[in-house]
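Recap quiz, item 2
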Amino acid sequence: QSALTQPASVSGSLGQSITISCTGTSSDIGSYNYVSWYQQHPGKAPKVMIYKVSDRPSGVSNRFSGSKSGNSASLTISGLQAEDEADYYCSSYTNSVPMVFGGGTKVTVL
Amino acid sequence: EVHLVESGGDLVKPGGSLRLSCAASGLSFINAWMSWVRQAPGKGLEWIGRIKNKIDGGTSDYAAAVKGRFTISRDDSRNTLYLQMNSLETEDTAMYYCATYLYGGITNWGQGTLVTVSS
């Protein structure tokens, strides 16, 4: 099972909105509504931001939203803040293994 | 609040073995499906395995990179998850995270324990 494809980096200015894409196949994202997104600051453990494509755990800002179309999913961060600068990973359930991660996207706040 | 605390990380020689532990609290561990995820230095996240709860069969699944070398087990009486790692390779050097598995993804993460495989 290959990793999901994410852009290596995305940047945006304070207050702007950015979108991170996560591209899979019909064997993972395309067939299941089990896409999650994680935020990881340097030296820290990851934290789940979105699960089941668009659900937010309690305590996660509503500036974070998720969606899916076909074999791709997206994470949108609106009203970009300095503390949003981090690495972001997507994951999906697949028809061969319980989950696979994307390669990660570094978000830079300009 | 869910709390996962890994331990057992160490420096080990290639070909050696190591067992990691993960003490869980703040959740119904006996009902939880659990996973291990690793992250090599400067690299991305890699799912390595999952174990179901006993009610759902208690079976384990593994990533191809570790299948046959790593074994996940659990002791529900101690609320503890284990990862037995054999035939370790330098490529297994990573931070190892214990995590809860739900909705096809990870819902809670531990802080990780570092495994270094080097001669």
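Chain B is about 0% helix and 55% strand.
The CA atoms of residues 2 and 27 of chain B lie 6 Å apart.
End of item.
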